[in-house]
């Protein structure tokens, strides 16, 4: 399991294996929060989690906390 801390400061628990990809975690987050994966920015230890890399690829250990922020759309 990993923890994801959102913008509101609340931390959610996700029972995913460390072999899960960043995209799989984003899908799990969407299921609980309704935030689309493309709008999510997940960071851990200064790294942005992307695509098909696994949580283990980012050296994320069990019970680690990942930060969720939202991608802002630019434009005038």
From TrEMBL:
<dbReference type="InterPro" id="IPR050158">
    <property type="entry name" value="Ubiquitin_ubiquitin-like"/>
</dbReference>
<protein>
    <submittedName>
        <fullName>Ubiquitin-related domain-containing protein</fullName>
    </submittedName>
</protein>
<feature type="domain" description="Ubiquitin-like">
    <location>
        <begin position="1"/>
        <end position="75"/>
    </location>
</feature>
<dbReference type="InterPro" id="IPR029071">
    <property type="entry name" value="Ubiquitin-like_domsf"/>
</dbReference>
<dbReference type="Pfam" id="PF00240">
    <property type="entry name" value="ubiquitin"/>
</dbReference>
<dbReference type="InterPro" id="IPR000626">
    <property type="entry name" value="Ubiquitin-like_dom"/>
</dbReference>
<dbReference type="InterPro" id="IPR019956">
    <property type="entry name" value="Ubiquitin_dom"/>
</dbReference>
